[in-house]
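Escalation from tier 1.

The customer reports that the assembly of two entities below gives different structure tokens on two consecutive runs. Tier 1 could not reproduce it. I'm attaching the input and our single run for tier 2 to review.
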Amino acid sequence: MQTLCISDALDLYMILKLHLPEKPDESGIRYVKEIVDSMAEKNPQDYLDSILLMTGMTEDELEKGYSTIEIRDMFVDGLVTNQIASLAEFGRTLKL
Amino acid sequence: MPRARLRTWFELERIRRKIKEASERGEAATVSDLLCVYLSTASGESEDVFASAPWYETAIAFGLVSALNMSTVNFPLFRNVASIGKEVPWNYEGRDWYEWVHVLALAYGWTLDVISELEIEDGIALLQEVLTDEQLDREWMWSMSENAYEYIPSSKKNKFRPLPRPAWMLPLPSAPMSVKIRKDMLPVGKVIDLANIVH
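Tier 1 run:
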């Protein structure tokens, strides 16, 4: 998975904005868990939208080609590749 | 990358204001476009270079270029800037830059090119000096006018009404005085500071 360009990264920030914890923990595990929990509680569509944005795939390609666990792994991989904690910090600095 | 000169700095500040406004409206697409325009204006590189780079490279570049082109002096001219709500009928796109050029050209007889190539701090400092001179001249002329004096019937004397100054020329509010409180009047027991509690 490739790092997003600035335009897609800010779109990703806008999708995840509501779900991003204030500060990351050291391992990042709790950070990702809090994002996923928040999505499940507030807006599950954000989970799908963020994966589509990070992978560049269509909804159809994702559903037919990958299992739920593979999709979850892609989501986590996308967050790591795009340095989500730094992106959150940048988005907050811009006051987006 | 060299530091911007006055004309480019003026443009960069205009883009920064637009970024701030777009952020406040939550327009992520406009913000990302403007970030690339900002970097392109400062560096002379194509916007595509910044638009296609990994996001953190563009973000870091924006931080560094912004810091490089910040004024190193905290000019009073930018203090208490109140936005004028009503737009004048003779306004046009980019007029604020020509207002600056007009004031400096009138005062020093410089051409547009010379003013555009001034160092950022030189340009701002000289503009502030010209505006200060103009205000003090106006104040002196105002003090010569009979409109500057108001007749107070109760005292049968005239009272001088000074010409209002622009917000940036007003004195800064002084820091609150520290007052000593007698020990026997201080609160007793454990004091809980409620100042930072969010309601």
